[in-house]
């Protein structure tokens, strides 16, 4: 019985499945661009760290690295907890702790207990940290000026930002809801 069915099934021509014409389906060229996007983002992140490192060296700062400098930027005028900083910057726990230790030892931040909850450490920039933050902000302004020279480039930057935010949200949802059917 199974031999007959198998033979019969093999002799029948395969039925053509209807094409799925989703209006939002992407073609092969667009898929290739998506595949390259993650690699480009990683390469740009490394390049951005190199730009920050070069800016630090031009200012004579060699006691911290670019990752620590970006943490200073994230702290800004706030007094976040260590947990808040990790969530904002997507740092891993051990890396964040190590970077914060370097920043405290170098005198860029103060780390103290929260007045509400003594178990929670709050972070605050020192005068040295605020000076670094201001210098890094100036560096960012120079970079932005080089990138955006007219209204068309400003519109391109806004579109790129929206796309990257959307991608961040989608990837975050994929991690957060893994296995729960994102369809």
TrEMBL record:
The keyword DNA-binding applies. Residues 1-22 are annotated as: Disordered. One of its GO terms (biological process) is response to stress. The keyword NADP does not apply. Gene3D superfamilies: Winged helix-like DNA-binding domain superfamily/Winged helix DNA-binding domain. Residues 34-169 form the HTH marR-type domain. InterPro entries: HTH_MarR-typ, MarR/SlyA-like, Tscrpt_reg_MarR-type_CS, WH-like_DNA-bd_sf, WH_DNA-bd_sf. Keywords: DNA-binding, Transcription, Transcription regulation. GO terms for molecular function: DNA binding; DNA-binding transcription factor activity. PANTHER family: TRANSCRIPTIONAL REGULATOR, MARR FAMILY, TRANSCRIPTIONAL REGULATORY PROTEIN. This is DNA-binding MarR family transcriptional regulator.
